[in-house]
Amino acid sequence: MKYYSLIDKLLESHSNIEEDISRKTMIQKAVDNKEVLISANGALATWTPEESTGRSPKDTLIVKHSASAHTIDWNSPNNIPLDPDTFNMVFEDALNALEQKEEIFVTNRVIGADSAYALPTKTITDYASTALFTDNMFRPVPADIAKSIFAKKPFTLIALPYDKLDKEKYKGLLRELTDGETSDMAVAMDFDNRVGVVFGSAYGGSVKKMMFTVMNYYLPAEGILPLHCSANEGKNEDSALLLGLSGTGKTTLSADPRRALLGDDEHGWSDDGIANFENGCYAKLIHLSQEKEPEIYHAVFHDADYLNHGAIIENCMMYPNGTFDPDDERLTPNSRGSYPLTFLSNIKESSQSTPPNTILFLTADANAVLPPVSKLKPAQAMLWFLMGYTSKLAGTETGITEPVTVFSRFFGEPFMPRNPDVYASMLGEKMKEHNTNVYLINTGWSGGPYGVGSRIDINLTRAMVNAALEGDLEDVEYTTDEIFHLQVPKSCPEVPSEILQPKNTWDDKAAYDKRAKKLAKEFNEHFDKAYADKNIDTEVVKQCPGK
């Protein structure tokens, strides 16, 4: 199928194409079309159907072509194959739906702050608010886009957030729901033909994360490592990356008043340095506090005329007077705010920096068996990068809780389509080339697991993070944690030395040993299940806890 000629035909024949209209016009169109409400502070409020309050991983699909199938890890639970013929049907239905729309919005942006590999991205949609979302999240086309390796290889995204696919037509072709019905939603991407379709998902993250996944597929082939991380820069142009799953403190710790923020979620690491993929942030709003997160709070909730605002507040409780309650999660605990980086005060406008001096892997270990800070050798860093470990708390109404172990490869499993050895080996190579230090920071529990011990004080965590970033941990003495194969410092500025060894903080030493061995066993079992036949370097395999 000649996707691009069909897209061009649609855009040439439709009578009302709004292409690259001004930001203020997008905002006004979204208001006039009743896609959003103007809140008391001028931000735009919108609410989605229940099935669109978050991503739909089971409806997120990758077209499987015989020529490129070997480059994708189809054993990863998030890499769900889609037959090319079925994608053709979805694509045709998307074009047919667009033909019937009174108005079509088109934005031409790029993914990537570094012009050397910025990906030209055309978004075609029937919703002005979706176009505005791409204006918030994707970057303006740079003047030197011609030098990009993707200059002549753009990507086109069609987004129909509120249309639905015909369930009967796709029976047996798309996901079968628990009630026997067929899904009417598809978030599908065709890497080979450089086109994607968001059909039936009104969640802004479906657009954002599709393009992140696309970059995570394309960049390794160009020698660039894509990372699900935040990034900031010190006064001496020393850059740092922070990787961590939800709840580990990535956003909080990267928002450092002494360091300029490059971005909070998606970056690439090339030979020239690191660069943010995005133009904005898509922040969680649940329990957002003006005291604890003043930068994000101001970005979303500052007062401005609505035409000069443009932050999109998604699925957050709003009262009749137009004010918000971020603590109210009756609609969803996944309320979100999309806004440009320029709404933050302490940023580096270029969103680019030198190769990272320091990388921090963040984990919130509710088992309280990992050291609060440890240094990783290259093979160890590759192992912990592969595992992407943290633990979450499974609460019940009776108050019984037990930490649940979570592994998400590269701290972003749903968005990393290639075979895992590709990303891991690239990290190891770049670490060695640029002499990058990698530290594991445990922002979780100490003195016993959740329910017994307590969360490590944020001020102590900040002290350890600062010590890692300032180089204060490079020349101290280390011991080796034999169970987890970690290098644990004997001292750290402004941190009591007794808490650096987690076993010291437990009253019941035997209980610590039991808990640590249990977690190590979980590491071992997951590694064997996920990576046993994935061509992982033997030196990396040896670093897995439990081996």
> Class by helix and strand content?
alpha/beta
Mean pLDDT: 95
Helix fraction bin: 25-40%
The overall strand count is 31
Strand content: 15-25%
Tally of helical segments: 13
Secondary-structure blueprint:
Layout: H1 3-13, E1 17-19, H2 23-32, E2 37-38, E3 44-46, E4 60-63, E5 80-82, H3 84-99, E6 104-111, E7 119-125, H4 128-137, E8 155-160, E9 186-190, E10 195-199, H5 204-218, E11 225-228, E12 230-233, E13 239-244, H6 250-254, E14 260-263, E15 266-270, E16 273-276, E17 280-284, H7 294-301, H8 306-309, E18 312-314, E19 317-318, E20 324-325, E21 336-340, E22 352-353, E23 358-363, E24 373-376, H9 378-387, E25 389-394, E26 402-407, H10 420-434, E27 437-442, E28 445-446, E29 454-455, H11 458-470, E30 478-481, E31 486-489, H12 509-531, H13 538-541
Parallel strand pairs: 1-6, 3-18, 4-5, 4-9, 7-8, 8-10, 13-23, 23-27
Antiparallel strand pairs: 2-3, 6-7, 9-10, 11-15, 12-13, 12-14, 15-16, 16-22, 17-21, 18-21, 19-20, 24-27, 25-26, 28-29, 30-31
Helix pairs in contact: 1-3, 2-4, 9-10
